[in-house]
Write a structure and sequence with these properties.
about 290 residues; mainly alpha; 9 helices
């Protein structure tokens, strides 16, 4: 098993899985707290449908890439990696803005579903809350699998382990555990994902260079293969985890460095607190 690829997949599955698990845990806990725990099956139905659809999207993307011939395979892989890097970047900043108020917003949405609409609105609420995380995970993992080549299975195994850990964290949160500092967790896993996304972005640029789409800055920026080759040892681990290469092209290195510096600076800057929305006065169940 490739440890670097495994770690990369684990971090992705853990980070994305925790977000989805916490969303479901918050909704379920609030239903129980308001005396509406009997409607929990609607939440599981929506979450389950979102998971199935996310798996279908991931399998479809992977099968599509595998069925293409060069140079279209490289082009599609490059586009997939670009999309994955873009999606995870958007997700990181969305979660960064919403972290302070997401619990209140979810509880307000549950109140509206119980008081104003059909109980099927609870199913839709859970579906929409989980499908975003699921599609992001599918896109990101497909990008990582494409860049991992022979170590693709290690990425998927790592993702499954990460998702399993995320489910455990969600269960502990539901039970009222506060042992894990979620703000710190999301901050440091977010930093890790920024470096992984940067690797996907630079790998996409490399694919476009290979097929001749990018023709500027294609000369080698430097070559440290004698010190830290990416084919073995620590270099191989870094390549699987962060897309490291010991002899990058100029444009590839510039894109990687620019992304890391800019996105990391924006991600780590202080967050403005978003006021929580007003909560509904009552939470009486509506008729299905």
């Amino acid at each position: 098993m490739d440890v670097g690829a495994f770690t990369s997949g684990l971090l992705t599955g853990l980070r994305e899985g925790v977000e989805a698990a916490l969303i479901v845990a918050i909704i379920l806990a609030y239903l129980v707290k308001t005396g509406n725990g009997r409607y929990a099956s609607r939440i599981w139905l929506g979450a389950g449908a979102a998971i199935v659809l996310s798996l279908a999207v991931g399998v479809g993307l992977f099968a599509t890439v595998g069925g293409l011939e060069p140079p279209y395979e490289q082009i599609f892989e490059g586009i997939t990696m670009l999309v994955a890097a873009g999606v995870v970047t958007w997700m990181l900043f969305w979660m960064r803005r919403q972290a302070a108020s997401v619990k209140g917003e979810l509880q307000s949405a549950v109140d509206r579903a119980l008081t104003e609409g059909s109980l099927w609105a609870l199913t839709f609420l859970a579906f929409t809350a989980v499908i975003r995380e699921g599609i992001e995970t599918a896109l990101f993992l497909v990008g990582q699998v494409n860049s991992a080549d022979e170590a693709a299975s290690s990425v998927l195994i790592g993702a499954l382990v990460g998702l399993a850990i995320a489910i455990g964290i969600g269960y502990l949160f539901y039970q009222g555990s506060r042992r894990i500092n979620l703000a710190t967790f999301f901050r440091w896993t977010g930093v890790g994902l920024i470096f992984i996304a940067a690797g996907l972005l630079s790998h996409a640029v490399h694919e476009f260079i290979e097929v001749g789409i990018i023709t500027v800055g294609t000369q080698t920026a430097f070559d440290i293969s004698a010190v830290l080759p990416h084919e073995e040892g620590i270099g191989q681990f870094l390549r699987a985890l962060f897309g490291y290469t010991s002899a990058p092209e100029v444009i590839t290195f510039v894109v990687w460095l620019t992304y890391v510096v800019v996105v990391l600076a924006l991600f780590l800057r202080p967050v403005r607190r978003v006021p929580a929305p007003a909560k509904a006065a009552t939470s009486q169940p509506a008729q299905p």
